[in-house]
């Protein structure tokens, strides 16, 4: 499986998925969203799949949303938030939460930067192995929006509400050791790719039924209403997108402007 944006090869039951837009630090444009969703759909059909290693090409895991490309096509930003009546996730959420739906262990290998939507994709994995200098950020506040790629559903099982809100409200950057202390990173190591490969070899010696059962059981035990959380993400984001305060935040981040914000118009 391969596309312009994502490469995937499956060998001996192990899928190695690579976000492939290294010139943009694997930032998420509309083709990237579509490519990740396509790979996820194809992996669900792979017989004998045992594990997935997810990484980014080049210097970074993923720098988050490619805001400039989305500004050129505002309709694309709206489209990825749409969901059919019978779907639990929209496209934005599927590319992150879809890794949780796979009945096999998924390990995200992060280096360089893991920002915004990239962090939400990594949080959708079951484990995150990171280099010590990997930088993380819940960055959406920079653009005047909320995390809306299932981050509220995945983050809540890893950190307390106060820490989650502090990270989301400030958008500050932090390194892998702090991410590990917070519970966002499973293992900090100099070569997370090699560590992930060794970890997968350990898992291949275990019963795939037991591994799938553990993943399903623990997800239910830690998060009983993820679908409702993700619907709320979308409802709030639709109120925020395109409003004056969101544009002011985005213009401020892109051009270093300090524009005064207007009053909160969010409906509870």
From TrEMBL:
Record bears the keyword Secreted: no
MF (Gene Ontology): isomerase activity
Keywords for the protein's UniProt record, in alphabetical order: Isomerase
InterPro entries (alphabetical): ClpP/crotonase-like_dom_sf, Ech1-like, Enoyl-CoA_hydra/iso
Domain of life: Bacteria
Keyword Lipid metabolism: no
TM ranges: none
Family statement drawn from the similarity comment of this UniProt entry: Belongs to the enoyl-CoA hydratase/isomerase family.
Protein name as annotated: Enoyl-CoA hydratase/isomerase family protein
High-level lineage: Bacteria, Pseudomonadati, Pseudomonadota, Gammaproteobacteria, Aeromonadales
């Amino acid at each position: 499986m391969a596309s312009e944006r994502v490469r995937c090869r499956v060998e001996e039951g192990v899928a190695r998925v690579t976000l492939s837009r290294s010139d943009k630090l694997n930032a998420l444009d509309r083709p990237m969203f579509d490519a990740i969703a396509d790979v996820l759909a194809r992996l669900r059909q792979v017989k004998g799949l045992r594990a997935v290693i997810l990484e980014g090409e080049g210097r970074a895991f993923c720098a988050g949303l490619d805001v400039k490309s989305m500004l050129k096509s505002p309709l694309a930003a709206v489209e990825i938030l749409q969901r059919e009546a019978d779907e639990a996730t929209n496209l934005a959420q599927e590319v992150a939460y879809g890794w949780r739906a796979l009945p096999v262990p998924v390990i995200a290998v992060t280096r360089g930067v893991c920002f915004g939507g990239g962090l939400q994709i990594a949080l959708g994995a079951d484990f995150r192995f990171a280099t010590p200098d990997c930088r993380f950020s819940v960055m959406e506040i920079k653009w005047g929006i909320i995390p809306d790629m299932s981050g509220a559903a995945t983050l809540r099982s890893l950190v307390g509400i106060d820490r989650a809100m502090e990270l989301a409200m400030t958008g500050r950057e932090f390194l892998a050791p702090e991410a590990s202390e917070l519970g966002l990173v499973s293992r900090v190591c100099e070569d997370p790719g090699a560590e992930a490969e060794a970890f997968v070899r350990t898992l291949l010696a275990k019963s795939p039924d037991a591994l799938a059962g553990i993943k399903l059981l623990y997800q239910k035990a830690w998060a009983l209403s993820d679908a409702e959380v993700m619907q709320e993400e979308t409802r709030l984001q639709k109120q925020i997108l395109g409003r004056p305060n969101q544009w002011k935040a985005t213009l401020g981040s892109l051009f270093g402007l300090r524009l005064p914000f207007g009053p909160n118009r969010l409906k509870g």
